[in-house]
Structure formats: C-alpha cells, structure tokens
Write a sequence for this structure.
C-alpha cells in the first residue's frame, strides 16, 4: 500500500462480467495529482471519440484523491468522469457523501473504471478485496431511498452507496446518481449513464485503511488546521444553519423547527447535510434527507406557495434520481407550449401547474417512467425543441450544451452580477455548472481590495494578479476586474481541490490554501510537491479535459452565451453594475482562453502549451 | 496519555467519523473505521456511539469532535 494512494485501480467490464485489479501507475498519479485530475486522464484514453454517451463504449471513471479517507477536514470528495448524455460533453461529476469515498479508499482502491453493459440489472459490491457483480433485478424500479436502505439492511453499515433511481434506469437525460442518499453526482445525466449500463448501484465497505507518509508532520499540520477551524468565529453558525445561512429560503426558526439532524460528509467540519421532518400541517411527520435544506426548498423559487410542499416535491425528485433544476426548466417550457397553444393541455398526460405539488408530482412520475409525453420530456430541453419544432424554441429557457444554465437573472438562482460562476456556466467543458467557478465573486459587491488575499489563497501566481485586477498594478486604466482571467484560476483551484479530494464548497475549503494543499499532498503521499507542481498538474488535467471535448467536436461556438441571456433583464457587470452584453462576454471568454495559454481566438490549446504541460503525446 | 471520562451526546453527532479516523490512526498508524476503538453507527433514524474494550479513554476522539457529540472531561473513567 502506498501512502495516501491505495495503490490499485479496480476495472469492471460489465459486458463480460470481468473484474480486474490494476496497479496504480504512480508516475501517472503524480503527473495528474490523483482524484479528479487522474480520472480525467484515465477517461481520456478510454472514451472512444464519438461514442454515444449511453452506449457500452462510454466508460465511467470514479476517483477518490489521496487525501480521501484521512482525517483531514472535508476530504470526502469523489469524482466521476464520463461522457454525459445531456449535451454529449465529457465532464466531471463530483459529490461528497457520508462514507463512499472514505470506504472506497479504505477498501484499497483509488479509481474504479466501469465499462460495457450488463445483460440485466446488477449492482457492484466491493468489500475490500472481494468484488462481486450482483443481481439487482429486485432493486430495479426502486427509488434511491429504498435501494439504499435495502443495501444497508442486507450488508450493514457503514457502507458507501452510489445509486440511481427510476429516471436513471430509464435514461432520462437529467438523471443523477446519489451518494449515500445525501449527495448528488451528475447534472447532465450521469444517472442515465449508469442506467445504460444496467448498473443500479455500487456498494462499498472497506476495512484495510489508508496511511500517510509523514505521520509526524501530518499531526503537526493537521493540529494547526483543526485549531484554525475551531477558532473560526462563524463555525457554530454554519454548523447550525448550513446553506440556509447564506440562502435563507425560510426563516431560521422554521428551519430549526423542521431540522431533525445535521449530517456531515466524512471528516467535514460544517456538516451541511440535513435530515428534515415536517412538523405541522397536512404533511406533518413527513421525513426526508438532502445535501442541503436549501435544495429541498428550491420549488419555492418557482412559486410554490408552501415550503412543506416544496420539500415533498424535491424529496420525490431526489428519490427518482432527477435533477430538480432541469426538471423545472422542462416544466417551464412545457407550460409555455401549452399557453401558446402549441400543445393542447387536454391532450397531454396531466395538467401543467408549476406551483402545484400534485401537478409536479404527476409529471415527475411521467418523466421518470417515460410515459406518454414523458418519453420526449425525459430527453430534456433539446429533445423537446426537436420534437416541437423551430417555432417552439422561443418559448424555451436558455440552453448551454443541452442543459439549463441555472444561475441567471431569470433563473431559479437569480444572481444578476456576472462573476466567475456565471461565466463558468459557458466555459466549464462539462456544460453549465457553477461548482468549478468559485472565486471571491461568489459574494456580490465584495470590495476589490480584499480580492488579492483570496486569489493568493486559491494559488493564483503573483504575476497574474495584476492581469486579473489591472488597477492594482500601475494605475492602468480600464476594467477593474477581468472575470475571464479570474475564472481560469477558479478552474485551476477547483482541479487542485478535486485532485486531492477536498470539498468544492467554499464554506469549507475556505480553511485551505494552495500552499497548504501542496504541503499536505507531500505529507500524505511522500511525493515531493511544490505549489508550482500542484498548479501544473491541475493545468495539465483541465487542459486535457478541454482537449477531450475538442476531440468530440466542441468549439468556441459552444462556449458563446445564449441569445436569451440578453432578452429582458440580463446580467450586470460585477463592478460597475452596468448591463453586460454579448460583446463583453466574448471578450471575457477570449481573456479566459489567453490566460489558460490557449489560442485566444479559437480556445484550442496550441502545440506549445501542450508541450509545456507535457501533453503533446496525448493530444 | 491522560484518562478521561468521555461524555457522549449522540443527538449532536453528524456522522463525520473524525473520531474514528483519529483513533484508528493513533493506535494502528492506519486510518480505518474498522480499526477504531470508537464506533459510530448513524442512520436517518438513529445514532449509536460505542467504545470497544480496548478503549483506554485517551480522549483523542473528543479532541477531533467538532460538533460537541464527544466531550472530554477529567475525572474517573466510566465505560
């Protein structure tokens, strides 16, 4: 067993029921960091260019970084890399979970590669070295809750579970997988990829454990890190309220009233998962769990009048394994088609009322089973546009790479200042997701004076700070903040954290900085690592993800903003709060390419850049 | 290493497993939930925290608990 790394890749060919253990190539692990970075690399060589996302030729690579399974705070993160059906992009999916990543590492594995397609429903059972492909016919058709409960009942706790619900089984293009019932994996249809493989779940128990290279130094650094956390003045508030603290969808008192228990991913100091029990009204006694109460309350943003009904609907979507943002995007489009007379409400499966629990529950069921019109809706917004013709497109929400960019002035998360998360919805190769776009612009109207210390924490090289904040330099005139240039380093920071296994949520990775990440990487793995090394590995992995998508035919055109962003109330400049138009966004995109060292006109990494990142042999 | 009474407030436990990770590493040099002398079993319905016979009440589990579910108190060992 190597330190930090478990030392083995588990490869499962579902078509031929073949299980293989491959030794982890440590030079490759070092080159790509591990976790997210190495998963990108392993997927790049295995995804056949042009293969359909739901075909047996599309493999899934799971990865847990070298810090996962240790006691370092918030190191529970697992990543998967595969081709996603919603837009055909090769992308990452990431999630925490109560124990999956930790137990997977403790079982002795760093990565899991799943290939092919099983003949009938199966689940994969991993108990240390004993790996079995098991019959899942009795689980097929069950929701995430029942599937997880049955596996725990049969094999005991603790046990890590990644499972899909009926929408994944039926290859809904916005199906997700759930980790340990609480965390989600995969906007863009990761659940459908598992479903296409007839893979209902992966169950893992691990007892072998993991070691660190330098125990003495580990204790010193770890002690310091935990002291910082204990002294953080808002720790108790975050532990008490979770994401409700920053997104108060319901009053704090109401939240405390319905919160049954806070749940943490392995080693997380914030514990922002929730077990909820509705305490009054017709739904009194209804219990559910979620990656955050804020997620459960999302239907309130779409006009649901009652928070209890919002919780009930989201719990159902979660159980079916369906992405709620995409579900509501599809529902809005459907409502518009009915209102404009393109569809006759009397001729469709159920009434469409976005504020009604019974209507939305009916449609969630119809879509997850692909009944009637649900067969089209399960294909997401692009499938609906194709079915209802060019005339319908004007009534659809904006679409980026086959998905709804859910942070927009007209979106469910009504951010109107254009920061890195907003731009990141265009430039993350996986399609619209805000997870990789974290930066100080996450908070509105943050004074620019505080940016440099945040940028240094994220590992931005000093010479780049003046390009991001031109007025911090020599009094140069022009924009005060270059969002495109900043986003390039958000992606690098995200890749560093993901490759180590540290959570991507800002509320918790705030305790880390890039220098500390390099120190911890070296302490845990024994691999000599400077901050420059860490940055270079992250750049290498992110550029390879870009190359994987260029290989699939994606281009600058796919990065351009949708016209609908500029119709009606639009985004505003983060600093000046002036409206942001397509020209400004295109300039940010070109800044981003330039800062990445890619061709600023095309977004294609040139030969020199590939050579500098030691990728020339691959791409 | 001191001996402490460990007060358990299972209602405050979030299942983060830091106690188990810290305990197993201290005594076996390996992070492993299985090898820890403290056992936390948490589900949507309940949470049980127990200690194995090997536990010597050193309190490392409580040192790592950030949620107030394990509190290290000087005094007579109670198991």
């Amino acid at each position: 067993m190597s330190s930090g790394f478990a030392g083995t890749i588990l490869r499962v060919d579902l078509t031929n029921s073949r299980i293989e253990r491959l030794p982890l190539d440590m030079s490759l692990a070092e080159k790509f960091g591990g976790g997210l970075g190495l998963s990108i690399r392993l997927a790049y060589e295995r995804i056949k260019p042009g293969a359909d996302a739901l075909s047996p030729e599309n493999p899934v690579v799971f990865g847990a970084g070298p810090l996962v399974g240790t006691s370092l705070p918030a190191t529970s993160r697992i990543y998967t890399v595969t081709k996603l059906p919603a837009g055909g992009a090769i992308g990452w999916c990431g999630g925490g979970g109560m124990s999956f990543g930790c137990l997977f590492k403790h079982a002795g594995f760093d990565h899991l590669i799943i290939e092919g397609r099983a003949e009938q429903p199966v689940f994969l059972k991993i108990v240390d070295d004993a790996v079995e492909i098991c019959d899942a016919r009795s689980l097929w058709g069950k929701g995430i809750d029942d599937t997880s409960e049955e596996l725990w009942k049969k094999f005991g706790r603790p046990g890590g579970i990644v499972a899909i619900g009926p929408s994944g089984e039926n290859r809904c293009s916005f199906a997700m997988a759930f980790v340990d019932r609480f965390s989600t994996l995969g906007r863009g249809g990761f659940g459908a990829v598992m479903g296409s493989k007839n893979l209902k779940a992966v169950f893992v128990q691990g007892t072998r454990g993991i070691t660190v290279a330098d125990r003495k130094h580990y204790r010193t650094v770890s002690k310091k890190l935990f002291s910082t956390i204990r002294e953080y003045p808002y720790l108790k508030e975050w532990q008490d309220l979770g994401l409700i603290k920053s997104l108060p969808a319901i009053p704090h008192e109401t939240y405390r009233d319905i919160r049954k228990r806070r749940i943490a991913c392995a080693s997380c100091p914030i514990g922002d998962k929730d077990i909820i029990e509705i305490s009054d009204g017709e739904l009194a006694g209804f219990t559910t769990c979620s990656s955050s109460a804020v997620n459960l309350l999302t239907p309130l943003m779409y006009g649901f009048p009652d928070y209890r009904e919002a919780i009930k609907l989201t719990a159902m979507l979660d159980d079916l394994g369906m992405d709620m943002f995409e579900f509501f995007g599809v529902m809005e489009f459907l409502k518009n088609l009915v209102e404009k007379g393109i569809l006759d409400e009397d001729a469709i499966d159920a009434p469409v009322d976005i504020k009604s629990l019974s209507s939305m529950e009916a449609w969630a069921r119809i879509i997850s089973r692909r009944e009637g019109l649900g067969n089209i809706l399960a294909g997401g917004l692009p499938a609906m546009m194709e079915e209802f013709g060019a005339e319908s497109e004007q009534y659809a929400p904006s679409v980026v790479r086959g998905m709804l960019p859910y942070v927009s002035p007209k979106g469910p998360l009504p951010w109107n200042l254009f920061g890195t998360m907003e731009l990141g919805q265009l430039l993350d190769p996986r399609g619209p997701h805000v997870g990789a776009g974290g930066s100080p612009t996450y908070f509105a109207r943050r004074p620019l004076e505080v940016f440099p210390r945040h940028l240094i924490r994220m590992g931005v090289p000093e010479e780049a700070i003046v390009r991001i904040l031109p007025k911090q330099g020599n009094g140069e005139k022009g924009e005060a903040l270059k969002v495109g240039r900043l986003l390039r380093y958000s992606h690098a920071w995200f890749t560093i954290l993901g490759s180590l296994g540290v959570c991507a949520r800002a509320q918790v990775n705030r305790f880390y900085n890039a220098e500390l990440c390099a120190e911890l990487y070296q302490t845990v793995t024994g691999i000599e690592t400077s901050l420059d090394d860490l940055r270079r590995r992250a750049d290498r992995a992110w550029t390879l993800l870009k190359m994987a998508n260029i290989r699939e035919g994606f281009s600058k055109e796919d990065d351009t903003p949708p016209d609908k962003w500029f119709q009606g109330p639009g985004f505003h400049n983060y600093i000046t709060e002036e409206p942001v138009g397509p020209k400004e966004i295109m300039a940010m995109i070109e800044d981003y390419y330039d800062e990445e060292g890619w061709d600023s006109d095309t977004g294609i990494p040139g030969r020199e850049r590939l050579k500098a990142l030691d990728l020339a042999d691959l791409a | 290493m001191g001996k402490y009474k460990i007060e358990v407030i299972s209602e405050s436990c979030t299942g983060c497993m830091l106690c188990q990770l810290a305990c197993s590493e201290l005594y076996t040099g390996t992070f492993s939930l299985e090898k820890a002398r403290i056992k936390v079993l948490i589900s949507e319905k309940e949470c049980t925290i127990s200690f194995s016979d090997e536990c010597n009440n050193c309190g490392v589990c409580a040192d790592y608990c950030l949620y107030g579910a394990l509190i290290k108190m000087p005094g007579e060992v109670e198991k």
Observations:
- Chain B touches chain A at residues 11, 14-18, 21-22, 24-25, 28-35, 41-44, 47, 64, 66-67 (CB under 8 Å).
- Residues 4-74 of chain B form a domain with the Alpha-Beta Plaits fold (CATH 3.30.70.20).
- The longest strand of chain B covers residues 4-8.
- The radius of gyration of chain B is 12 Å.
